[in-house]
Amino acid sequence: MHQQFKTAYDMRRCFFLCIVFAYAFSISAQMKQTTKNYETQWQAVAAYEKKSLPQSASAEVNKILRQAIADKNSPQVIKALIHQGKYDSVLDNQKDTLVFVHLNEMLSKSSDPIEQSVLHSMLGELYLQYYQNDRWNIDQRTQLSGFVPGDMNEWTKNIFYDKAVEHVAKSVAPADELLKVKVEHYAAVIELGKDSRRFFPTMYDFLAKRAIELFPQVEEDDDLSRSLARKHITQESLFAPLEEFVELPFNPQPEEYNLWALEMYRRLLSSLSARGLEQSTVLIELEKTDYLRKLYSAYENYAFLSLEKMVRKWEHQDFSVEIVDKMADIYQAKLFSADIPGAEVDNIRREKDARKNLYELLRKCIDAFPRYERITLLKSKLSALTQPSFSLAGENTYTPESEKKLNLTYQNLSSLKARLYRVEMPVFDRYNENLKKNEKKTFVKEISVPLPPEEVYLTGKTAFSIDIKEPGAYKLEFEAANKQVDNRSNGHDFYFSVSDLAAFGRSLKKDRYEFFVVNRSTGKPVKNAKINIYKLPGNWNNSSLTLVKTILADEEGLAVYQKDIPNYDVFYQAVVDGDRGSQLSRLPSAGYYFSEDIAETTPQTIIDIFTDRSIYRPGQTVHFKAIARSSGDKEAKLVSGKPYDFILYDTNRQEQGKQTLTTNEYGSVAGEFVLPQGVLTGSFFIETEHGRVPFRVEEYKRPTFEVTFDKIDKTYKFNEQVTLKSSAQHLSTSLVH
Q1: What pLDDT, in 10s, does the model give residues 267-312?
Q2: Is 572:533 a contact under the CB 8 Å cutoff?
Q3: What's the CATH class of domain 604-697?
Q4: What is the domain partition of the chain in residue ranges?
Q5: What does the alpha-carbon distance between residue 543 and residue 439 come to, in Å, rounded to a whole number?
Q6: Is the domain defined by 501-586 classed in CATH 2.60.40?
Q7: Cα(322)–Cα(377) distance, rounded to whole angstroms?
Q8: What is the pTM for the complete model shown?
Q9: 660, 645 in Cβ contact below 8 A?
């Protein structure tokens, strides 16, 4: 059992803290770690943390604390104290703040500037963590200015932020001393990344990078663009070359929270550049560019241009791979960005240009630096850009006499081979992969699909037709020679039907359905058609379609089905002699009714509300009408002689009017509301107990002309072009030319 009594824990904690502050302040941070195996002990702590056993982890940390004091190992003492503070928060629901008192006392007694800087950095982070863990309660407090209560439990948000900024800023203040100390000396108390020693070798680098991570957590109510404007700094200048950026006068005051991260980028870049750490400088510049994404418009306008200048400057260095990787990310974002409506030709041209530029950029850099340690970043992007793929688009159902045309989009393919099969199972419009296990198919023929040549990085488009007229369900399987193909939407298969039939279904009531069968080309009813009812017994992972019933349509193509099976996965298909190819469709609304224990006869009241218009101006009158009906007991009835409250709500869901109206013998009522002036425009609605209707309230302008379309006087078939004629006329009666 790892559960221990809290009283014993508190006594032990106080005992060890007393030991710490009796001896810890004479410890020198420069002394070497003894031969004691701290690493093994910290591994044990990590194991307890992973198992969510904070008390056991705390006991192990106490052992480390004893040993660190005996060894006079300052980094280990700091690390142990920080961990004990973390466990205090877990174990003590009263948010024990002793760790802050002890660390501040240790800070005041320390004479080592490096140790002081580490403590400042840790304290800044702890203040932020404390606020974030209890922010809901802290944010309820009235903000205090010019006064810091002695009890941390009375602090407000701004005090936590001020304390965090103060300590993090002080952590990098003794820059000259920090630059002389290698990060290895404090490896016990800080977490070093894989390449920290190589790219960021000093304690200044480490603490500056921590500051860059911590400052953005101090959320500023003021917008960054306004803070920059007050300093007369343009957003464009943030993307300037290194030599110009490090001269920007951020000079943040303690309360200018959102400028501190930029100031730390400026200081760190200036230091790295002065020391000739070129690759480190580039890595931080790239981090800074990512940070500036928060200035969306400026990032869109200047980020890529900034990266282009960087890559030209460092194009002969292998670490330019890192810059190209960021440029590729922006290219890819543009490829997947939304198209501009009405500019299809321009969009296609821009996409082709972007793909070409991205391909050439990646290819050039990979060829130049094939042995760079992170070159796989670019190789992965190049592989994705040139991945052989294809997708198909076509009709679910074709009539026997129509052209069976399929549109094909492809990339990095020279040809496709298709095999056409006839399948016995009717085609389901949401075909499930697991149904293929029981699929029976008959080979019909092989089709070669030639593809116009395209660059490996560009997508091509073509179309081909299938010469087949016999009604039935069909499947196309595709194969690309010597290519690992990504078929993005069809799983290498395409199912379609050939049929003259179209069947429509609707739900009349629970478990009762009506079907209407028509000729797909003419729209005329098909008399005496059959409706086959199928079910999927079992589950989707192991199931097959089973025919459960066949019903006959009448002379008007109508048929009624009373569902008497419990399954939700029930489907229907229309067939006639010689045509069994129509699509399989799910029963409408199957599976979405109330549970079976609700009696069918339980009446449900529905009120349909109608307004005379869909948009109004403030101050206008909304005329509305409502019809109340009750469903249940096998038929719907009008509700007469019953009063209902109708309430007008504005866009903020505030009540703006109320009327009580009683339905007449036809179950209807009529009323009106005058819209208020001076309220926020937007979506209003009228609501009653059993219904609601939304409408818009806007300061719109009256139309100055109207467009009238001539009545359609002929019947059109599928795929036939529809021609519409119209005329436009000013409301002043003059024609618009």
Answers
A1: 999 999 999 999 999 999 999 999 999 888 899 999 999 999 999 9
A2: yes
A3: mainly beta
A4: 320-334+342-385, 389-498, 501-586, 604-697
A5: 11
A6: yes
A7: 9
A8: 0.66
A9: yes
